[in-house]
Amino acid sequence: MARHSKSPRRLVADARLYLWTLRHSHSVVDNSRSCCETLTLYPQPAGGGGPLRIVFTGGPGRYVPGGAPLGSGDVGYIRGASLNLHEPGAVRALLDVALARGWQPEVRRMVEIDGWSLLEAAAAARAGTAVPADPKDRHR
User: Fold this and answer.
1) Would you call 76 exposed, middle or buried from its count of C-beta atoms within 10 A (0-12, 13-18, 19+)?
2) What is the C-alpha separation between 84 and 80, in angstroms, rounded?
3) Greater confidence, 135 or 58?
4) pTM metric for this prediction
């Protein structure tokens, strides 16, 4: 039986259970349509902490497709790091980077993070490589 695409998925990280969802949305800014992927992680048990919302909004040098020819859930830099947000390993990598940068799942408030600030480190962790130390070496 196939999983319903809108149902939360389970992820266990460091002995803590999270439910996570991925949503695609659109906005119009300056007569230009923009796509957005929002990954939300909910620490469990419910009420045990506030959700983490990781948002990827399309922009210059970035892609956030709504499907073909690129896959649903794909986000990345045109010339650089990318992830598929439907993959539990990609979600875990983003969670690990957010935790390393100070997100505290036990705090009972929603936190929203710009996903682009986490992408390179998460993609590097998934690939087993290091992130370039010099920002000008990124996105080539």
Assistant:
1) buried
2) 14
3) 58
4) 0.84
